[in-house]
Each structure stands twice: as C-alpha cells, then as structure tokens.
Amino acid sequence: MSGANLPVLDFFPGLKEAAASTKAWPFEEARRVIKRYEKSGFPEEVLFETGYGPSGLPHIGTFGEVARTSMVITAFRVLTGDKVSLRLLCFSDDMDGMRKIPGNIPNQEMLQEFIGKPLTEVPDPFTGEFPSFAHHNNAKLCEFLDQFGFAYEFASATEYYKSGRFDKMLLVAAEKYTEIMDVMLPTLGEERQATYSPFLPISPTTGRVLYVPMKEVNAKDGTITFEDEDGSDTTIAITGGKVKLQWKPDFGMRWAALGVDFEMYGKDHQINSNLYDRICRILGARAPEHFIYELFLDQNGEKISKTKGNGLTIDEWLTYAPPESLSLFMYQKPKTAKRLYFDVIPRQVDEYFQHLSAYEGQDPDKKVQNPVWHIHSGSPKPVELPVSYSMLLNLVSASNSEDKSVLWGFISQYAADVTPQTHPVLDQMVEYAIRYFRDFVKPEKSFRAASDKERGALTTLRERLLALDPASDAETIQTEVFAVGNEHGFENLREWFQALYQILLGQDQGPRFGSFVALYGIGATIQMIDDGLAGKLVN
C-alpha cells in the first residue's frame, strides 16, 4: 500500500455552501457517487478504482486517471463532511499475456520467446533488477504516483488471481457462463465467435495465456476443459490463478468481486462500457458509476499509446515543468480531446501559477472552481513567482546563456530582494526553463534581418530606451514600444511585435515586450538591438 492516509482538507468558512452549488466537474462526479447511496446509506467503505495495463511503460493517460479520480475523492470528502471511509485502488492488469513487444523498450530480442506469457512472467528488459517486465512497469507507476503524493493502494491482478481474491466470483462466472456468452457473442465476428471463451487458461505446458474455446465448463467442480498447445485435452481448476478472464468480462468481474463504486476510463472504452456493466450485473453486483474522458493525442493528432511510445511520458513532462502543471492539464476539460506534446508545457506552467496567485483573494465559490483547489486536494499553499515561465524561457534565449548564475544575475537586477534562497520554486523554474530552451527552443531559433521600415523603428526604439531611466518599470517601457510602432506606420501592432521577436529573439512569438525588457535590462536590450541591426544575430 502507498499513500494510505488522505491529505488534510482545509474546511475554510463557506466551503460547504460553495461545494453544494459549484458545477466544477469533480463535484458533479462526486454527487453521482453520493446519490448511489442516498436510499441505503453508505457502506463501510466507498471504493474508487483506476485500471492500468503494464504492457508498456506508464504514460500520462494512466497518471491522469489517478489524478482525476483523486480530485473526485476530494470533492466527495467535502460533500460528505469527510465522514465516509474511502479507498482508491490502482489496479494493474499484469496477468495479461504479452501479445506484442512494445517498440520503445530495450533488449527486444530477448522477449521474443515470452510472447503470450503473463506480463509477470516476462523478464525485465530494462535493468534486470525486477522479477518481471510487469514488476518494472508497476514500480515505475508507483514511483510517479508517490511523487505526486496520491493516497492510493496498488493492486496486482496476478496477486489477486493467485491469492484467491477472485475465486468466489470466478466460480459464479462459471455458473453464469451461458449468460456471459450470450452477452459477448453478438459483439464478435463469426470467426471469433467460434473460438471465443471468457475464460483464458494458463497453459500447464507452455505457461502462455491461451485464447482457445472451451470443451467443457464444469461449474459444479469449478473446472474448464480445453485443448492445450500440445494437442491434449486438459482440465484445470478456474481458481488459484490457473485461469484469468478476457479483458471485457474481467472488467465486470473485478467490479463485482471488489464492490467498485467509481471508475473512469478513456473514450476508447465507451463502446464496451455497457458490456462491462451487464457482466457485473450478471455476476450479482451493481455496476459502478463511470466517468468517460476524451483521449490524449500526440503531435500528429493520433491517440497516445503505451506500446507505440508516442506522446509524452510522465518522466519527460517532469523534466521541463513542475508536477502541478501536469495536474492542471488533467483537470482542464477532461471531456475534450487534447493534444499532449512538449509545446503545451509552458502555457500550463504559467496558467498554474496564475491560478495559484489568484486563489487567496477569491470568494469560496470561486475557490472551489479554481483548479489549484482540486490539484492540491483542497489545501493549496501560496507560492510567489515574480517571473513567469515563458519570461524565463525568453531570458535564457536572449542572454544566450544556460548558466543559472548568469540568469539569476538578470533576475536579481529586476527584483533585488529575490534570490535562489528566498524563492526556491523560482530557482527550480530556472532549471526547467534551461532544459526546455536547450531541447526545444534553441534548435528552432531562426533570426532574420530587419526590413528598411523595421530598421527605422528599431533605431527609434533604441533611442527611446536610451532616454529612459534604467530602472523604468514594464508599463513605462511597453508604452514606448507601442508608441514607436504607431509612429512608424505599423497599422497592425501585432506585426511590429512579431518583428521584434523574429529579429531579436529568433522566434515567431514572445513575451510582453515591456516586461521582457524590464527583466533583461534596458542596457542589455539596447545591445541586442545593436546586434540585430548589425546582422550579428542572423550570422
């Protein structure tokens, strides 16, 4: 078990009233779970579950399910006065057979002979330190979840099947075999119908997960008979981890066996959601409440996949940005398909700190709608960030330095009382900005020479900046920049600012220019203009 203790909630004045009326989606979902028990009263425990398939490295979609479910749990706690016992189970389907080798892992040739075997029987191709491929991926998932401080319990399908946790429900499935087949067969093609069985035996001879038809299902004895890979008719018990269920019946069986109250999953499961529910009911249990979210897309608009390794990994996001920015991405518009690639990171970081800055001064109804309330489980703590992430990126770009001490020199001139010691979060942000600039901005930088009209405007801007007090604030500088653009006939001032970005920073977009100059320094900006006019930046 990890993160067993739920975080402490801040029940500030007006919270319950605000929570009762807010339309924030985690509260909407929490209300559905509460309504589930409005007549019967709550059981000893309300169970929230997320599912994970360790056929590949955990990706951001998996993290998103845990983050979003945790947000629903926080809302549930507020609406119920935090008096109901809750549990979040992160379930790994690690007994599934490995059907193909992911393209983004090392030592692929060593795994060929293990095709078809349960993922917990496939060797660890990464370091060899873990008992299996699944154990490695499970550990990686828990590492990420622990880093975010989620309160959850990890569960392994292999352990649950082998320990007998599912035995009772598997025996019920054998009794209800015909009903389950009646649900599943109409959803399959003619050829698949002829070989389909909800039971997948683990071959006693090869150890592989077999997709074979049943010759007999004996509910009384709790056994199945099938043709093994060596051609022999084989009878084995369906209990004790010798058999697992196909993934669709497995969904319903797990819900029934564990008493799951809430589970969310991606839109790709929507077509099968009714099947999961029906099987759960056939097995004698009530199906959980569902929340179906839209899928994440990579830079080409394709669904991200563990086995393809496209899109972003959790590791990659956390290389360039703080964890809270990823949580914000998960909170926003969960029912809208979103492109998940590196270029979304800077905006998410800046938006997170904007929301955090606004939180303290907000009324209760605004606080529970603020994403940071949900990101921080109802107890966000203020952080002062005097320089935005996008501004830091442009500072790294303009200074042409990836040295933290050099960048802090600019920051200290801009805000004398700000140091790495007084603002450790800003210090970490400087490191993030350096990494992001090095890997994504620098390779794409492309300076151009100024046109005659732009040269005239830049020369005037140089003169105006030279006449300003070096300590002028961002608004004063921005006013001068606007004035120069108007005086030199830029009818659309956006063209003037784009020229500044392209000529001086080597990019199509940039920060609010007055704020950038205030941070970078008037003297340093004048030198940059001189270099731009002389063609040194292009060269």
Write up what this structure looks like.
It is built from 23 helices and 12 strands. By secondary structure, it is of the alpha/beta class. Among the domains are: 1-164 and 294-339, HUPs (Rossmann fold, 3-Layer(aba) Sandwich), CATH 3.40.50; 187-244, SH3 type barrels (Roll), CATH 2.30.30; 446-539, Arc Repressor Mutant, subunit A (Orthogonal Bundle). The protein has a 5-stranded parallel β-sheet. Strands 5-6-7 form a 3-stranded antiparallel β-sheet, with no helix packed on it. A two-stranded antiparallel ribbon has the order 4-8. Helix 2 packs across helix 3, helix 9 packs across helix 10 (270-282) and helix 20 (474-487) crosses helix 22 (513-520). The chain starts with 14 loop residues before the first helix and ends in a 6-residue tail after the last helix. The mean pLDDT is 93.
Q: Biggest β-sheet, characterized?
A: 5 strands, parallel
Mean pLDDT value = 93
CATH architecture descriptor text of the domain at 1-164 and 294-339 = 3-Layer(aba) Sandwich
Terminus-to-terminus distance:
58 Å
Instruction: Specify the number of helices.
Output: 23
Major sheet: arrangement of strands: 3-2-1-9-10
Number of strands: 12
- 3D shape: elongated
Percent range of helical residues: 40-55%
Structural class: alpha/beta
How much strand content do the residues show?
5-15%
Q: What is the fold-level CATH name, i.e. the topology of the domain at 1-164 and 294-339?
A: Rossmann fold
By CATH, the superfamily of the domain at 1-164 and 294-339 comes out as HUPs
Radius of gyration (Å):
29 Å
CATH class descriptor of the domain at 1-164 and 294-339 = Alpha Beta
Low-confidence stretches: none
